Fold:
Amino acid sequence: MIDLVAQRQVPYILMHSRGTSTTMDGLSTYENVPDEVIAELLELRERFYRAGVKPENLIVDPGLGFAKAGSQDWDLLRALPRLVETGNKVLVAASRKRFLGNLLGDENGPRPVAERDIATAAISALSAFGGAWAVRVHDVAATVDAVATAHAWLGVTPPILVPHEMSHENED
Structure:
């Protein structure tokens, strides 16, 4: 894959993971999740660079939910500024993930997948504020509204996303 990305000079999302979909849960042991995930991403990033991939074509993704357990996804989200400092675009793909279901669950178990969009929108707004280049979501409209609202509150100018409703801001 590395050689193909270098040859074609196309954008590539470099996502952190360990193992396969059947083995990754058993590979979620870390001494320090942000340190190790960032180090592993940077090590792999260097392989892409050595093959001739341009830095602007690599987008890093901390791989929320992939070989992560318990509070590890939250640790990575709190470390978003460190990922942004690596110099590559950062993608945060938290949409409807298991760690949200566990956070929002109750005595009956995790919150159902389809009921995690509000939490996803909150993470997306915080990620945009934290410097993420993009977020991957299922409910685009809610996310656009959340990001635009957060940017309006924070006075981000120009806002990154402006839903059509904001064009009527002078109306009561």
Summary: Residues 33-51 form the longest helix (19 residues). The chain has a mean pLDDT of 91. The first strand starts at residue 12 and ends at 15.
